[in-house]
Design a protein that fits this description.
The protein is α/β, with parallel strands linked by helices. It has 12 helices and 11 strands. β6, α3 and β7 form a beta-alpha-beta unit.
Length: 327
């Protein structure tokens, strides 16, 4: 199989490395020192006390790779709009796109059903650029339940988790999603086909949309925020408001708010991805993680005063840091 990974950082690099080791024709789309190191010395994956090195093709120009069977998109959300047009050479008539990213994806309302079917989300996909250029019909959803980091150029450290449930927007067990599940599973990733991938997206999003922005405003860790009574008050209100939004879209929440906070506390003194981005001077995934909840609430006519307030403060924090853009 020809598989391109757009955004070969911690997650994309890990997936691409496993797929290359399994014998697939992998092209990594990366740039700068990371690209140069992979070209010169290969990509090294360190995981669970073991390591291996593979030598996939690596370029910063998707046109060099040509049409693929599958494209794995593993960029941070703010980087995707600028990359959408450059990705077009990767797509043939039957190429499928796996979105392996945090937050709500651009295709969320494709084949959703109900009054919002076909809705484009400005906070996630400004100007519906991804919807128009890539198309929602190519999309296969996923939720990333694994963590890692680029330890050095050309070196990926896989620290925890190995789950990547995938699913079609319409919930079908299509040939392409079944094939991709088998490919990823054989490569060493836990990638079952989920019959309702939106439900899985919300399972992770419920924590991300609350803990990530609050951590940026307070610099608290998951454990610290979960134990702080004032933080818990704000987190709880955000979770309750977002639960109303999710339930209006048909999402079920099997955990209570207290149980979800308990899950976050058990992670320990971990910094959220958004806080890590702030400290590194990178754009934060504001639109995909919390801006989209405010946008959905407006469409559904649901009041979300706490989310709206935290979102406004988060934007101010990003402007002060000089990292605020369209996303």
């Amino acid at each position: 199989m020809k598989i391109a990974v757009v955004g070969a950082g911690a997650i994309g690099g890990y997936l691409g490395g496993l797929l290359a080791r399994a014998g697939h024709d992998v092209t990594l789309i990366a740039r700068g020192a990371h690209r140069d190191a992979i070209r010169s010395h290969g990509l090294r994956i360190d995981s669970k006390g073991a390591s291996f090195t593979v030598h996939p093709a690596c370029t910063d120009d998707p046109a060099e790779a040509g049409a693929q069977d599958y494209v794995i998109l593993s960029l941070k959300a703010p980087a995707v709009p600028a990359m959408a047009e450059r990705m077009l050479p990767l797509f043939g008539p039957d190429t499928a796109l796996l979105t392996a990213m945090n937050g709500v994806p651009y295709w969320y309302f494709h084949k959703h059903g109900g009054p919002l079917d076909g809705t484009k989300l400005e906070s996630v996909d400004p100007g519906a650029k991804q919807w128009a250029l890539i198309g929602p019909q190519r999309a296969i959803g996923s939720v990333v339940w694994l963590a890692g980091a680029v330890a050095a150029p050309g070196v990926i450290h896989h620290s925890s988790g190995n789950g990547l449930p995938i699913g079609e927007p319409d919930g079908s067990g299509s040939e392409r999603v079944q094939r991709l599940s088998k490919i990823l599973t054989a490569a060493g990733v836990e990638a079952p086909v989920h019959p309702n991938i939106r439900q899985e997206i919300w399972t992770k999003l419920w924590g991300n949309l609350s803990y990530n922005p609050v951590s940026v405003l307070t610099h608290g860790t998951l454990e610290g925020l979960s134990r702080d009574p004032d933080a818990r008050l704000v987190l709880g209100r955000m979770m309750e408001e977002s639960r109303q939004v999710g339930e209006a879209l048909g999402i079920e929440f099997p955990l209570t708010i207290e149980q979800r906070m308990g899950t976050a506390e058990k992670v320990g003194p971990h910094k959220t991805s958004m806080l890590q981005d702030l400290e590194a001077g990178r754009p934060m995934e504001i639109g995909a993680l919390i801006g989209v909840i405010a946008e959905l609430a407006q469409k559904l006519r649901i009041d979300t005063p706490t989310i709206d307030t935290v979102l406004a403060l988060l934007k101010v924090r990003a402007r002060v840091a000089g990292t605020y853009g369209d996303m």
